[in-house]
Structure formats: C-alpha cells, structure tokens
Amino acid sequence: MLANSKVIDVDVHNQLKSHRDLLPYLPEPWKSRIAANGIGIPDRGYPSPVGVLRNDCRPPGGGPAASDPDFLVQDLIKPYNIEIAILTGHLDGVSVMHDPDHGAAVASAYNDYLVAEWLPKHESFRGCMVISTLDPALAVREINRMADHPRIVSIIIGSAQRALLGQRQFHPIYEAAERHGLPIAIHPGGEGSGISSPPTASGYPTRYLEYHTILSQNYMAHVTSLVCEGVFEKFPNLKFVCLEGGIAWLPHLMWRLDKNYKGLRASVPWLKRMPSEYIRSNCMFSTQPIEEPDNPKELLAIFDMVDAENILMFSSDYPHWDNDDPGEILKRLNPEARRKIFYENAKKLYRL
User: Fold this and answer.
1) How many Å apart are CA 330 and CA 339, to the nearest integer?
2) CA distances from 203 to 41, 192, 310 (A)
3) pLDDT category, 4, cuts 50, 70, 90?
4) CA–CA separation, 275 vs 235, rounded Å?
5) What does the alpha-carbon distance between residue 104 and residue 111 come to, in Å, rounded to a whole number?
6) Within 10 A of 19 (CB to CB), how many other CB atoms are there?
7) Are 169 and 137 contacting, i.e. CB atoms less than 8 angstroms apart?
8) What is the pLDDT of residues 45-87, one digit of tens each?
9) Which is nearest to 284 in space by CA: 85, 6, 11, 52?
10) What is the Cα–Cα distance from 263 to 261, expressed in whole angstroms?
11) pTM for the complete prediction?
C-alpha cells in the first residue's frame, strides 16, 4: 500500500465459534433443533483440498479462524491499516435451505448475535445483515427490523439461489433495501446444494478447482437478470455489490448485452438506457479474487474497459485460503485509482 494510506475492507468473514453461539438468540422450536442438530445449512459438497479457512488465522485461545474479534483486530485490522471492516459472516447459504421459516430464524439469530457480540468490539467493525430470500415477506420484515442499527451498512445474500435475482418475487426485498438506503451484496454460498440450481449451467462439476473457477458464471447470470428484468429502472437508487465473483468477465458481458439490446430491445421495453449503463451506475464489485494474468498490463486494460476505479472496492476475503493482502495487489494502479478502490468507493457506497 501507499504510505499512510487508509483501507476499507468490504469482505471480512467473521465466524461463529460454534453453532451454539446462536442459541441465545433463537426462539423455539429452532433453539432446540439447532442445539441438537446444528444450523442445518446444506453442505456445498465440494471440499477444498487446501481447506477453506487459513490455519494461521485461528485465535490463540482456540476456535475457528476469524471467530475471535480481538484476534481479528490484531491479525488483520491493525497490521494493514484497515479503517473499516465490513463483516460479511458465513451464513449466506440460508437461502438454499428447504424450510423458509428455519432459514429466516437462522438469519435473524445471526443478526442479533452480530450486533451483540461483534459490532461493539472494535470501532472498525460494520456489519452486513443476513437475510433468507426463501420468503420475501420474512426477508422484508428482517430488513425493517435491522436497518436502523447505525453499524449495519449492507444486506448480504448468497449467489446460490433457486431463481435468477432479477425476477419479480425478489422485488419486495429490493424495495425495502432501497427505502432504507442499504446496498445488497451477493456472495458465493452453497451453489449446487439444498434447493439451489446446479453450480454451472451445464450441471455439476467434478472437483473443487472447477467449482471455484466457474463461480463467476452465477454472477454473470444474476447481473444480466437484474438489468433485463428492469430492477435498476424500478429501483434506481438500489446498489448491488458482487463480492468474490471476479471482474475480468465484465467487459464481455457488457459488450454482449449492449449488442443484443440493440436488436432485441422490444423484449425489454422498460429499459431506458443501454444495459452497460445500468451496470456502471448500480453495480459494484470486489477485488478478491482478483484475476492475475501473466502480463499485468492486460488486467489494467480490463480495468479501463469497465471504469474499475469507480466500481471496484478492495476486499481481503479474510480468512479464506486465497485471501489478499492489500499491500500486495494492484501495485501498478495510479495513486488516485488506488485511493478510490481501496477507500473512497466503499466510503461513498456504505455512507461511512
């Protein structure tokens, strides 16, 4: 990083020590069920051969990586001069559970746990409320319940869904998010598990390498759906944040959408602008996992194509196995672009 530069990290995965952390915040019958059987989010079924969480991020007192607020501050916040850390948790898979009431109960319990046991622990912490999209009415109720907390700055849902996110059943969620001025972040969370669709358009891959590489396919589908279903025309102030989905695919998608729109605009008469304009005005993206071509100039060319300095935000993805050090990525950017990506864009989006 540049000397004395400040950082806002938009994707920090705080963890539960155990499913039992949620029990004080759960009503019956969910409290007894989860105490006996665990949270119940379906397993994605693609184990990483190197693990998902870094072992060196485990707190000295025991527990999973990133499960101790004090150690997270010592291990991430202070060494990297992170002014604000957006806590994204790890329960975005509640939207692929089979029981919508169960999913909503877990989301609400996690949000209360986050507010009680994480956000007060350090001045840098801000939170994403988790919602389940299985029952939009319950999701709206949860947004209304949590939105006024001063340290809740976003809503997070999984990119694994039973339907494309532009479709109308989700629109009440977007109305509530826009009304409260909260961006919605999507994050990989259970593709191919529970009630979600297969993780690729052609079915199920065999290995984690394939699964992990192709996750961006989901993002392409959701962004296209959001644009073409008119979500950003209907909710012009709504912002969508694509976390952990990459960015190198974006020029192709924007070009292809614009080209096809010119011949097929009669099928989406509600759109008043070119599709790429909605993406630039209403979608933001995170750096991790940043694509790393052999020739760094090629990535800079892609950044120019999509106006990355205005739509990209730094994310460490701590404590995942492939998380990024803010001092080691995007070194070739000019100082103004770095300042926007590492700090200013997130400050503006989250109204910090």
Assistant:
1) 11
2) 21, 9, 35
3) low
4) 15
5) 11
6) 15
7) no
8) 788 899 889 999 999 999 999 999 999 999 999 999 999 999 9
9) 11
10) 5
11) 0.96
